[in-house]
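Input record (one chain):
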Amino acid sequence: MISKYQQQLRDRLLAAPVMPAPPPWRLVADRRTPIGGLLGAGFAAHPDTGHDLVMVVSTDGHGLFDAVTGEKIARDRDPDPESSTPDAVPDLSCPGLGPIAGVRVRIAGLFGGGLHSTTADGWTLEIVSPDWPNDRVLLSTDGGLPHEGPVGERWWHVFHADYSELRAVGFSPSGRTLAVATSSDLTLWTRMP
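The corresponding structure, as predicted from the sequence alone:
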């Protein structure tokens, strides 16, 4: 049995439509990037440009994406079986590829771990499931649940995982990228300083 307050909060979350993230956030590539069998994702910085990079681990190997453009910049379809999934080591990391070869990248997802849920300048991410097992991703500037005011003012329902299992949600360490990884795709938002 849930309380009247909990029911009101659940109803409020269920009524919130999916909407674009507010400025300065913009959707990268205006679409989801399909990645079948996605297990997890993590962040690194490009050694030359400083752009956030997103590394994805899937059942089909490893991929590296520029988080500003969405471009796939490296792919390893046959990673070393000893390090192909993050559960092979205690820190849940995998070896980097392409411009971050030689760097270990921590991967959040099916095997555990996590990405940043806040930024230094006050953005917050939450995963809520008022219609479990479907997860919703909320972006806010008001510090998190319970959100004050109507949806679209200080909080936004930016993603609804009603078609695949959510694997990882979070900000890059720089706070300039937001990633949502499901078992079937990757969605990125960016904001450049």
